[in-house]
Amino acid sequence: MEQRENRNLRNCRDRRRRRRRRKKTTRAAVLCVLLLVLILLIAGTAAAVYGLVKGDSREQNMGKTAKDISIDPRQDKSGQENPGENTAGSTDSHAGEDSRMKNTATEEHHKTNGLAICMYHYVYDESDPPDDLNNNYIEVHALEDEIKYLVENDYYFPTWEEVRQYVEGELLLPEKSVVLTFDDGARSFLELGIPVFEKYRVPATSFLITSSDGENKVKEYRNDFVTFQSHSDNMHRAGGNIGHGGIFTAMNHDDAVADLKRSVEICGNGDAFAYPYGDYTEECRTAVQDAGFTCAVTTENRRAEVGDDPLLLPRVRMLKDQSLEGFISLVE
């Protein structure tokens, strides 16, 4: 009798333990279901909000052509974020909210009178003028006045890819757009000019003759605003019989391409090329194309227009004694 009672007691205890375990299991399952429902509700709300935002964005962009879409200069041709346009210097450190880095052109408001690609050479300080002072120089304070004017008047500084798209009729540019270039990579520009562009956070191109201490110049004057591009490696010298007599017009194709590729390797860029002395032939253009350049500039004195050859672009010549008003008339 006593044994039967003990068994009954143990069975009761076992049943109570099993009921407690079932209750715990049931509560855990309920909690899991509630948690899953909560997660699904949160995800659904987020998806609905995202859909509304995307829908508004799609509606705002409906009817726009490719020309209406601005191009971020901080992206390379593949559309990927470009942390540095080159190893020598880039425009990439501009603040993302800087209006000068945004293409604001529309079908109603865009540049219609041609793009001024400004051609400068050397910079000097009037307190210490060089012995060979000539029209290819600009006084550093005059240069600063010009850059300050561009900044204060919200000018846009297109990339070389944008320049190419502009002349090919694939991209609109803002009414106030300009490209700034300095030929030869002279130390007068590197020492006096670069600080101006750093001060005003404005991008410019330095066309560098890389055989003239190019590697050291690229390393020494590396900065965030002036980009080193090719003015050839060793073709800025006499030897031809076309134009100013630059040797490029007399070189064979393979040698010319090899020279250009050396300069690109040193500069760290192949976006743009400036023909030495402005001399070129159709064979020179072919070599530039085969070297992979996006754009190339000559010394033809006018604005670049839609329909121009991107590998034979004209430029607007900047002279030593031009006034600020004269500069404005050349770029506006």
What does this protein look like?
The protein is an alpha/beta fold. It has 2 domains: 1-62; 70-331, Alpha-Beta Barrel (TIM Barrel), CATH 3.20.20.370. Helices cover 40% and strands 13% of the residues. It is built from 8 helices and 9 strands. It has helices at residues 2-61, 140-152, 160-167, 187-200, 214-220, 253-267, 282-290, 324-331; strands at residues 116-120, 122-124, 137-139, 178-184, 204-208, 226-230, 272-274, 295-301, 313-317. The strands form 2 sheets. A 7-stranded parallel beta sheet has the order 6-5-4-1-9-8-7. A two-stranded parallel sheet has the order 2-3. Helix 4 links the parallel strand 4 and strand 5 (204-208). The N and C termini lie far apart (114 Å). Residues 49-97 have low confidence and may be disordered.
SSE inventory with pairings:
Elements: H1 2-61, E1 116-120, E2 122-124, E3 137-139, H2 140-152, H3 160-167, E4 178-184, H4 187-200, E5 204-208, H5 214-220, E6 226-230, H6 253-267, E7 272-274, H7 282-290, E8 295-301, E9 313-317, H8 324-331
Helix pairs in contact: 2-4, 6-7
Structural class: alpha/beta
- Count of structural domains: 2
Question: What order do the SSEs take from the amino end to the carboxyl end, as H and E?
Answer: HEEEHHEHEHEHEHEEH
CATH topology of the largest domain: TIM Barrel
The residue ranges in which pLDDT falls below 50 over 5 or more consecutive positions are 49-97
Mean pLDDT value: 83
Give the biggest beta sheet. Answer: 7 strands, parallel
Protein name: Polysaccharide deacetylase family protein
Region (Disordered): 1-23, 61-108
GO molecular function, one term: hydrolase activity, acting on carbon-nitrogen (but not peptide) bonds
Domain NodB homology: 176-332
